Amino acid sequence: MAVHASCSFDRGISLAGIVLLALACAACTGVGDPAGFAVVTQDASDFKPCVEIIATRKAMAAREKELTDLAAKAEAAPGGIIVSYAAYRSELTSARAQRAAAERAAQLHNCDAPKKP
Predict the structure, then answer these.
(1) Do 95 and 43 touch, CB atoms closer than 8 A?
(2) Helices of type H across the chain
(3) Could you report the per-residue pLDDT of 85-109, keeping only the tens digit for each?
(4) Among 42, 37, 38, 35, residue whose Cα is nearest residue 85
(5) Burial of 92 (C-beta count, 10 Å sphere; 0-12/13-18/19+)
(6) CA-to-CA distance for 65 and 94, rounded, in angstroms?
(7) Each residue's pLDDT tens digit, 46-81
(8) Residue 54's Cα: distance from chain center in Å?
(9) pTM confidence score
(10) In terms of Cα–Cα distance, which of 16, 6, 106 is closest to 56?
(11) DSSP code of 114?
(12) Using an 8 Å Cβ cutoff, are 53 and 102 in contact?
């Protein structure tokens, strides 16, 4: 009886450890672009003219696409998700945050409004 109870206890501890590990991994996937706002000054584009804001937004959108493609290519390989997160995810998060800041500044200055003839 004692051996059987010990095995059940060990199995329960192992299962609890697996569940905790899965929860920890799931928590990491919940961190998205808002994490990038911690490293990007949100008002950096607020004092720029519309030409610079739109140029920044286009450049960050292109950089985001490039990094997304590189991350997807890396994740296709075995073990590539580790390489993807190590090499591209922090820069991708920063590019997304910079693009979002430029979007916010463009809306603030009404840069996308049609020009009056």
Answers:
(1) no
(2) 2-29, 50-76, 80-84, 90-109
(3) 888 888 998 899 889 989 999 999 8
(4) 35
(5) buried
(6) 13
(7) 788 999 999 999 999 999 999 999 999 888 888 888
(8) 22
(9) 0.61
(10) 106
(11) P
(12) yes
